[in-house]
Amino acid sequence: MDSDNEVVSMKESKRRERQSGPGRYTSYDVEALENPDSGIGLCGWLLVGLSLLLMLLTLPLSIWMCIKIVKEYERAIIFRLGRILKGGAKGPGLFFILPCTDSFINVDMRTITFDIPPQEVLTKDSVTVSVDGVVYYRVQNATLAVANITNADAATRLLAQTTLRNVLGTKNLAEILSDREEIAHSMQSTLDDATDDWGIKVERVEIKDVKLPMQLQRAMAAEAEASREARAKVIAAEGEMNASRALKEASLVIAESPSALQLRYLQTLNTIAAEKNSTIIFPLPLEMMQGFIKH
């Protein structure tokens, strides 16, 4: 709970810093929107009274125009004479509006998913790549999503494309290919901070695909093939070296016992006979060869 409170306080402090400039809402913009201090004035109350009287005179027909229903995943922002009604978003369930002075906007609170179109990005090492992704977000505060931005969905989509290009422009090609999770986390943090004033919570960002130019793909494939060939040659050389060491040790063992060579001859004869060859070579006994070896 303490960590959650710290995160909320940090976001609130950032929001206050962003809203300190001219033309911005103050730090209590949410409270000001949901609980306005100034009323609608005498003329406004007069219009509200006339609307209420009209509704009473046209009962029970007018009741169908006054009762509205919002679903579990929706919230309704009610405007009375252009001002947000005190209490903020309504719903889910039933709520009442006055037919002449009130209007409302439904806001979907479910998680929304959209694809980031492929973006041509020039990396830090001057390589052009095409990168696309997917973003998951939801409306966290329906009042801010209606009052502070014209079209929250379109604004979030455009901001996601710009953020993708800005983040990837500071990375090398190797970092883009290997550190996708870090790039996605950086994009999520940037988008979440930027859309906080709009009442939007960016839940997740994922990098879908990184497309390289064909020439670069061929160059990387050739480099990978050359690396594999080099490793294969090194492994083959190590195998030859180990085999030569084993043969040397075997020759030393055979040299210690003359009968071992004769057994090797017999084993070779058995192998040749199993292959059904028409010509069979019989090795001579070693004792017969001793005289020739001495001369």
Automatic annotation (TrEMBL):
In residue numbers, the region (Disordered) covers 1-23
The annotated regions of Basic and acidic residues compositional bias extend over: 9-19
| Keyword Transmembrane helix attached | yes
Where is this protein chiefly located?
A: membrane
> Where's the Band domain?
65-224
Which SMART domains does this UniProt record tie to the protein?
A: PHB
User: What domain of life?
Assistant: Eukaryota
Q: Which CDD domains match?
A: SPFH_stomatin
Mention any one GO cellular component term assigned to this protein in its UniProt record.
plasma membrane
Give the stretches traversing the membrane: 45-67
Q: Where in the cell is it found?
A: Membrane
Q: Which key words tag this protein in UniProt?
A: Membrane, Transmembrane, Transmembrane helix
Query: What family does the Swiss-Prot or TrEMBL record give for this protein?
Result: Belongs to the band 7/mec-2 family.
Q: What is this protein called?
A: Stomatin
